[in-house]
């Protein structure tokens, strides 16, 4: 009888060794991510807002020493932006527009980040009430998240396969609707990077290269269309970001109204200033994109605003879309409402 009980005990022990609960899985992933010298992740990212879907190709890179690089390519218009962190600071680079922004920011540690492994695992680790589930394909863990500028983003659902690899991450709102979905294609935990891979100057050089290539293409188009006035007119409209129409926010807070509309001439074209007064006063600025190669300094955080990476502070949201610079500013509205106004402008601008 003792032999039978001992045998059953061993079998129960062995059968349990291959199973994972949330504590074991989180501990395993936390140790793995904390001990790696580098990783490179490729994925697709879908964002759902205002009944619209925005899709990106994403690659995220990390190297020990607090180096991060995230490449985001909008699938709709092939618009590429780079979020970069190195010893000098945090940058957002837009090669095709010859633009770079340097942020005074604690990114990526000050908020949840769907496209970086450290914040994903940190959110799992910090939630003692996380929910674990074993599925046919592997495991899922659902935990709280910290999106300070998106109060409706309440939790993340992280999918693992049977080999404990992360395969997908979903960000859910309070009604369990999926707001963002990262589908992971591959994670390389032993990548090698060039010495200047995390250097801002490398991508500023790429900016100049893309600018030159763009100028060559534009010159060729001008030559080919010189004798065709209609074709030239179309070409010119594509080359120059003109304020052909003023874009108004589709969302305006209750008891707030447009009180002034001013147009100011600048070196790069026109600047439109829309002033809204009332219960929640704010200002919208839109202007032609400057062609000067400058690095703008921003006190805020990089933020993915629908079709582009912009910047967000406690009092403003700024971004570039379709060759136009936009800003929404207010000292009476909270960040959530500022974002709602900004995103209602983006919806119109994207389809313009």
CATH superfamily of the domain at 20-188: Lipoprotein localisation LolA/LolB/LppX
Secondary-structure arrangement, i.e. CATH architecture of the domain at 20-188: Clam
Basic shape: globular
The secondary-structure element order is HHEEEEEEHEEEEEHHEEEEEEEEH
In DSSP terms, counting alpha (H) and pi (I) runs of 4 or more, how many helices?
6
Query: What is the arithmetic mean of pLDDT?
Result: 83
- How many strand units? 19
Alpha-carbon distance between the termini? 80 Å
What is the CATH topology descriptor of the domain at 20-188? outer membrane lipoprotein receptor (LolB), chain A
CATH class membership of the domain at 20-188? Mainly Beta
Q: Helix share of residues? A: 25-40%
């Amino acid at each position: 009888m003792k032999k039978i009980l001992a045998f059953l005990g061993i079998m129960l022990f062995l059968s349990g060794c291959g199973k994972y609960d949330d504590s074991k899985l989180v501990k395993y992933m936390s140790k793995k991510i904390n001990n790696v010298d580098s990783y490179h992740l490729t994925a697709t990212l879908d964002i759902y807002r205002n009944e619209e879907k925005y899709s990106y190709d994403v690659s995220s890179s990390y190297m020990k020493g607090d180096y991060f690089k995230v490449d985001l390519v909008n699938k709709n218009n092939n618009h590429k932006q780079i979020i970069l962190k190195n010893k000098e600071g945090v940058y957002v680079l837009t090669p095709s527009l010859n633009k770079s922004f340097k942020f005074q920011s604690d990114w990526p540690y000050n908020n949840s980040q769907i496209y970086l492994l450290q914040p994903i695992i940190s959110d799992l680790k910090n939630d003692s009430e996380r929910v674990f589930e074993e599925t046919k394909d592997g495991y899922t863990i659902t935990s709280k998240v910290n999106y300070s500028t998106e109060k409706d983003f309440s939790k993340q659902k992280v999918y693992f396969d049977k080999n404990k690899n992360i395969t997908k991450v979903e960000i859910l709102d309070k009604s369990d609707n999926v707001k963002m979905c990262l589908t992971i294609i591959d994670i390389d935990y032993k990548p090698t990077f060039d010495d200047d891979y995390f250097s801002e100057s490398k991508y500023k050089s790429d900016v100049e290269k893309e600018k030159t290539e763009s100028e060559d293409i534009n010159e060729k188009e001008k030559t080919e269309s010189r004798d065709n006035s209609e074709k030239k007119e179309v070409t010119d409209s594509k080359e120059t970001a003109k304020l052909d129409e003023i874009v108004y926010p589709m969302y305006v807070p209750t008891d707030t109204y447009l009180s002034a509309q001013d147009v100011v001439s600048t070196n790069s074209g026109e600047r439109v200033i829309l002033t809204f007064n009332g219960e929640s006063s704010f200002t919208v600025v839109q202007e032609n994109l400057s062609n000067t190669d400058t690095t703008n300094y921003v006190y805020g955080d990089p933020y993915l605003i629908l079709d582009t990476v912009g910047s967000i502070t406690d009092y403003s949201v700024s971004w570039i879309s379709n060759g136009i610079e936009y800003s929404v500013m207010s000292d009476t509205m909270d960040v959530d409402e500022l974002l709602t106004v900004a995103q209602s402008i983006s919806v119109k601008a994207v389809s313009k």
